[in-house]
Write a structure and sequence with these properties.
Elements (H helix, E strand, L loop, with lengths): L3 E5 L10 H9 L3 E4 L22 H13 L6 E5 L1 H10 L6 E5 L12 H11 L8 E2 L3 H9 L4 H8 L5 E2 H8 L20 E6 L7 H10 L4 E6 L12 H15 L8 E9 L8 E9 L5 E3 L1
Parallel strand pairs: 1-2, 1-3, 3-4, 4-7, 7-8, 8-11
Antiparallel strand pairs: 5-6, 9-10
Length: 297
């Protein structure tokens, strides 16, 4: 069993996004390596690297693959948001022993468009040619899409650390049917390691229904957990420790055997935080036979 976790941040982020999780998992005995994606090193108040706007998911994966080649083991990959999609792409290349996807961006072929997703990216999409420019959310848009479950006093602090993101990457993820390079495509059959997908019921930019579809894509190896009191910034929202504890427990159960588990499907019912109060919805939840499917109400 590997004790190395390779952490990949998401859109507009950086290694700082993993501060809580890095401390938590290092205390649990893991060695944590935190990646920084190409061209994300400019200070938030400075002009972004001119190469950022046209950078592709393919460029990000190539840089991460080079970092992974320097490790002495096949690590556990842990990705948040877009970092979760990058983790899926790397897992399809056989570069990890397990994959943890926290509110992950969806690969090509998974329908991920909802009203809240459109609203989250609306200010960026209104700019003609956004697909070749760096893009950064304004404060109100960032709060709506990412930070709304953080206490108000922490929202501004988190926003001030967000950097610009590649417009091309946003296009490759959101407009995958139009992407001739098919950059966000992942062959599910090539993902053979255990996979944990974590969704958040109040997530607006990766709705829990989208996270569920990602889990379904890897149903031959995937477990799914959903947390009702969390949204997209699940790495740092109040109660993040509980999520991390469940992730740690899953790693302990599924990363020691060296092979993927066999999975069954069950129905669960919860509440949607994006709809009217008390709105119910049903979805299907993957769990390992003899294991657990967690839904937090």
């Amino acid at each position: 069993m590997t004790d190395t976790i390779f952490m990949i941040h998401g859109m507009w982020g950086g290694p700082w996004c993993w501060e809580h999780y890095r401390r938590f998992f290092e205390r649990a005995g893991y060695r944590c390596v935190v990646a920084s994606l190409p061209y994300h090193g400019s200070p938030p108040t400075a002009d972004p690297d001119p190469r950022l706007g046209s950078a592709s998911l393919i460029d990000y994966v190539a840089a991460l693959e080079s970092e992974l080649a320097q490790l002495d083991t096949r690590p556990i990959l842990m990705g948040h948001s877009m970092g979760g999609l990058l983790g899926q792409m790397l897992a399809a290349r056989g570069l990890c022993s397990a994959l943890v996807l926290l509110t992950p961006a969806a690969p090509a072929g998974v329908v991920a468009v909802t009203p809240s997703v459109i609203r989250s990216f609306w200010s960026i999409q209104r700019s003609w040619g956004f697909w070749r420019k760096p893009a950064r959310l304004g404060f109100r848009d960032a709060v709506y899409a990412l930070l709304h479950r953080l206490p108000q006093g922490q929202q501004a602090d988190a926003y001030e650390r967000l950097v610009a993101e590649s417009g091309r990457v946003i296009f490759e993820i959101g407009y995958w049917p139009l992407d001739s390079a098919r950059a966000s495509r992942v062959a599910a059959s090539r993902v053979r390691c255990p996979v944990l997908v974590v969704g958040a019921n109040a997530d607006r930019i990766v709705p829990v229904s989208v996270a569920w579809r990602v889990a379904r894509k890897y149903r031959h190896v995937a477990s799914f957990m959903a947390f009702a009191n969390h949204a997209h910034w699940i790495l740092a929202e109040p109660g993040w420790e509980e999520v991390a504890e469940h992730v740690e427990n899953w790693l302990a159960r599924h990363c020691g055997s060296g092979r993927a588990a066999s999975f069954s499907v069950e129905d669960v019912v919860g509440e949607s935080s994006d709809g009217p109060a008390g709105t119910s919805y049903s979805r299907r939840c993957l769990r390992p036979r003899g294991g657990m499917c967690l839904h937090r109400d």
